[in-house]
Amino acid sequence: MEIKHGAMAGTLESSDIMVTVLPSSDGIQIDLTSSVEQYYGDSIRETITKTLEELGVSSARVEAVDHGALDCTIQARLTTAVRRAAKEEVAK
Amino acid sequence: MEELEIRGLRPGEEGQMDALLEREGLQRDGWLDYSAGAFDGGELVAAGSCAGNTLRCLAVDSRRRGEGILSRLVRHLIEVQYQRGNYHLFLYTKGAAAPQFEDLGFHEIARDGQRAVFLENRKTGFSDYLQSLQKETPAAPAAPQGAIVMNANPFTLGHQYLAEKAAAACGTLHLFVVSEDLSVFPAADRMELVKAGTAHLSNVVYHRTDSYLISRATFPSYFLKDGDQAALAQAQLDGAVFARIAGALGITLRFLGTEPTSHVTALYNQALAEVLPPAGVECRVLPRRELAEGPISASVVRQALKDGDWALAKRLVPPSTAAYLHSEKGQRVVTQLREMEQVNHH
């Protein structure tokens, strides 16, 4: 999927993750801020990378603010954000 | 507990927001372009706003802290900003509140002691900006390196004089042109005018300020009530950001021009003279070039253009700026100026 414009999904609440997906010309770039970064940072980044792969996204900037989301939550939020970002922009 | 409703304020609800801000020791910023609140029943328990690419005037009723209201409100404001295409967001807050915003995905750019912290939502935003400045700079800049930050609205003989004096006093001169498009002359045109008017100087490097210097994002007029205090706080925070830029590039001299008619500029110069030397940057204030009619300033040029006094305007600008003013692009700005009530803003 091609990222056409910025889109987001998720919330800033506990056990959730807020994911922003932006167009990029520079492959995949992940900026993660997490309350559990020290313990799960690498695992969250891995989940994001894998999910992007499965969705066929090869270029994107992902900004994620995590408050202890489970893997399935991360996948769901990221998938929603990517789908929104890949849609044609709605006329304003 | 009833579910909170987070939504944009409706006409007539601003009074509730003002009352909440006042209770929490904040003042409403004059430039807000969107405001939202968290309502519990009919009662406003938190409020926050947007202005350009910034989040502002965020306050939670002190009796309702610790319920996660701020994170829901911020989430709503971010969504609104994204819908407008603003993905890179800025805010500043009191030092004590910074960790709360860091928890919401904001990252510190600079701080002025404990008073104010300037944050952005992009982890590598400021470091990317510093890298772009380094890329724009030649591999072996000559010491001492100096800097000027100018809006050049439009570029006058006064700016040219300041640039010449500064360029003569340093090895490499970094010329930062204000990027924020809040001035009557567009940012791209101002940059072109600066380049054209300093083309004869061989040791000048040009940079954009993006949102990091003298921008809407660094204007903290809301948590300090007094006008002078607000301007001083802005200048101190701006100075703290500049100190980080200076550190990254090896700048040890900052040149400031006097602006006898502008009180804010005087405060700004005063604040930088306090903030920069401890960070290893010497401030040099250069007196403004004067003509018989008085000091040369961009506001005098704008007034002359508004009044249709071409003869005066032309005496105050270099030939490159005069040529621009006669061009189609320049004429468009002059027409705008004529329609403005007053031109004394930056």
Overview of this protein structure:
- The complex is a heterodimer of chains A (92) and B (346).
- The model of chain A has no long low-confidence stretch (mean pLDDT 93).
- Helices cover 38% and strands 25% of the residues of chain A.
- In chain A, strands 1-2-4-3 form a four-stranded mixed β-sheet, covered by helices on one side.
- With 92 residues, chain A is α+β, with helices and mostly antiparallel strands.
- Chain A has a single domain, classed as Ribosomal Protein S5, domain 2, CATH 3.30.230.
- Chain B is of the alpha/beta class.
- Chain B folds into two domains: 83 residues, Gcn5-related N-acetyltransferase (GNAT) (Aminopeptidase), CATH 3.40.630; 213 residues, 3-Layer(aba) Sandwich (Rossmann fold).
- Helices cover 40% and strands 22% of the residues of chain B.
- Chain B has twelve helices and 14 strands.
- Chain B has a five-stranded parallel β-sheet, sandwiched between helices. Chain B has a four-stranded antiparallel β-sheet with strand order 1-2-3-4, sandwiched between helices.
- In chain B, α7 packs across α8, α9 runs antiparallel to α10 and α9 crosses α12.
- Chain B starts with a strand and ends in a 7-residue tail after the last helix.
- About 2% of the residues of chain B have low confidence.
- The chains are: A alpha+beta (92), B alpha/beta (346).
Q: How many structurally independent domains of chain B? A: 2
Order of helices and strands of chain A: EEEHEH
> What portion of residues of chain A is helical?
25-40%
Structural class of chain B: alpha/beta
Shape call of chain B: globular
Write down the secondary-structure element order of chain B.
EHEEEHEHEEHEHEHEHEHEEEHHHH
Helix/strand class of chain A: alpha+beta
CATH class of the largest domain in chain B: Alpha Beta
